[in-house]
Amino acid sequence: MNFLNLLKIAWKAILLNKTRAMLTMLGIIIGVASVIAMLAIGEGSKESIKKNISSMGANLITVRPGAGMMGGVRSDPSAMQTLTLADYNALKTKTKLLKNISPLVNGSGQSIAGSNNWPTSIYGTSPEYLKIRDWSIEEGSMFTEDDVEAYAKVAVIGKTVQENLFPNENPIGKMIRFKNIPFKVIGVLREKGENTFGQDQDDIIIAPYTAVQKRILAQKYLQSIVASSLSEEDSEAAVNEIKTIMENQHKIKPDEDNDFNVSSQQEIISTFSSTSEMLTVLLVAIASISLIVGGIGIMNIMYVSVKERTKEIGLRMAIGAKGNDILMQFLIESVLISITGGILGVLIGLVATFCVKQFAGWPVSITMSSIVISFAVCTVTGVFFGWYPARKAAQADPINALRYE
């Protein structure tokens, strides 16, 4: 008997018991729909995290004082003042893989303009800081290298600071006081909103690092040095180059721990992506339990079907059907149930994913690979769980089968 005839017989057998077939498919439908939705949510979360972190500066590299973090605590607090302007100058003159570089010092305090005041943070940087963070000026201008060298008391403010200190008025040319030090506002940053960690990127004042270091913080060391690599592909090589320059600058011997640490956005993206992938795998594994339950349901119904059609099996064998024909007939029936359930599961999974995006506002991304994998799993499930009942039917004795009541 050819494959097409076996396919027709199997399909007719399914149609004769539509309700039972549909109930049998239920586990497969729920399992496939869950896997599609979980993979879409996981992939969407990963892309969202990558996009949000990249928006903070795709090629951002940060050099911080002290050894690396151990369980959220720096292992050597005394080394927190080891980053200086000499390190910044060494990196600026010796590096070949960095496009922009800026020292960074910052402090928090009350900012005042007229009768308005607002608690915020002031960042002391070089003019290159905006290029590193991929920020831009909406009004006015950024301070220059001449302002840095002159310790000029000029500042660029974020939107949140503008709205609280200068409601309904243009702040350009106005004065603000930060810890009683006057700064002239020369620019307003374009609105950025919150970053991945929920921090308001518009609640910020930027001023020349020389002025912030001397007039506000009264310190000579840097809190960090930020830089951008020539491209995302150069980030890892740039991190290694920075480490080499810094080790030479600090005269660190091969057997000594570094008194600084260097991290790139790519490392942060990789860490978050790994965490997201782990959670996705966990959720998919939980959803896959439904597929196993559905497979057991197929095995159970196929076994019942073989029992009910024992006389039919005997009759087919009596008129010439071979054991392999019987085996293929029931195996095709099992796979058809599984694949039909898979198709319905994919459709329901797509609808569920759309609902999650529309009503919950979660980022989702459906990939073709998740649909292909779901179909492959359905086919394997149908073959695996349908094999035993089909084999039992194929091994039936024709005479005993015809006598079966």
List keywords for this structure.
about 400 residues; alpha+beta; six-stranded mixed barrel
Strand residues, percent: 15-25%
Our measurement of the CA-to-CA distance between the termini, rounded to an integer number of angstroms, reads: 27 Å
The Cα radius of gyration reads: 34 Å
Number of discrete helical segments: 13
Shape: elongated
Biggest sheet: strand arrangement: 4-5-10-7-9-8
Q: How many DSSP-defined strands?
A: 12
SSE arrangement, N to C: HHEEEHEEHEHEHEEEHEHEHHHHH
Question: By helix and strand content, what is the structural category?
Answer: alpha+beta
Stretches with pLDDT under 50, minimum 5 residues: none
Percent of residues in helices comes to 55-70%
Mean pLDDT over all positions: 84
For the report, how would you describe the main beta sheet? Answer: 6 strands, mixed, barrel
